[in-house]
């Protein structure tokens, strides 16, 4: 059992150290005795309180106030055998409970805020634009066939860079793909032949339009390309169209493509 006085002031700190008068000496002695008596009484009360609470199985409460020689209140804190006060234990438990409640409430608030944010984003979001490859397997056509029957236009959208489309040598050869519906076309990726003749791809216009009679320039490719390589052709801004056309505006030219990919935003216009 330990009794701790958190605010007690020793009388010698507040009474004259030297008392010349007998009455003053007696008064000082009486004051000390009174303080000692109060301390003794407080200790007894604390012990009694401790005993009472131990017998009842309840936690002692620090409620009773005592007074020092200056009539300043102080309290008795009762310690257990481990030296930890019941008050400290009580405060510690309160703090832990408060932390748990606060953490739980904070998590709930954050969850609600995130849900609100997500809902607002979903509400304001009309669509999510993602580039998709939209040319593979689609309907295609080119200006001619090599030797009248070889290397058709479909070989440029078969997903295999080992095959290729090929026109005959002619003026202004072209190749186009019908995407099947309107898209916002952003990028065209062209793969040249893997075994030769990559340099044939040069001075080429890439156009996009809603019909073959209504085409606009996406980009001009000066080239030349390299054998077995590929290059990206980006429109400055996404262009609405269903058709993508490649044209070489020169005499004695050949259009040959190992593969062509069209990347567009898949959405209804």
Automatic annotation (TrEMBL):
Residue span of region Disordered: 1-57
Annotated GO biological process: regulation of cellular defense response; regulation of complement activation, lectin pathway
GO molecular function: fucose binding; metal ion binding
Sorted UniProt keywords: Calcium, Disulfide bond, Lectin, Metal-binding
UniProt-listed Pfam families: F5_F8_type_C_2
Basic and acidic residues: compositionally biased ranges: 10-57
Keyword presence, DNA damage: no
Domain named Fucolectin tachylectin-4 pentraxin-1: residues: 131-264
InterPro entries to which the protein is assigned, alphabetical: BG_Antigen-Binding_Lectin, FTP1, Galactose-bd-like_sf
Record text on subunit structure and interactions: Homotrimer.
PANTHER family xrefs: F5_8 TYPE C DOMAIN-CONTAINING PROTEIN, FTP DOMAIN-CONTAINING PROTEIN
Job of this protein: Acts as a defensive agent. Recognizes blood group fucosylated oligosaccharides including A, B, H and Lewis B-type antigens. Does not recognize Lewis A antigen and has low affinity for monovalent haptens.
Protein family: Belongs to the fucolectin family.
Record-given protein name: Fucolectin tachylectin-4 pentraxin-1 domain-containing protein
Taxonomic lineage of the native organism: Eukaryota, Metazoa, Spiralia, Lophotrochozoa, Mollusca
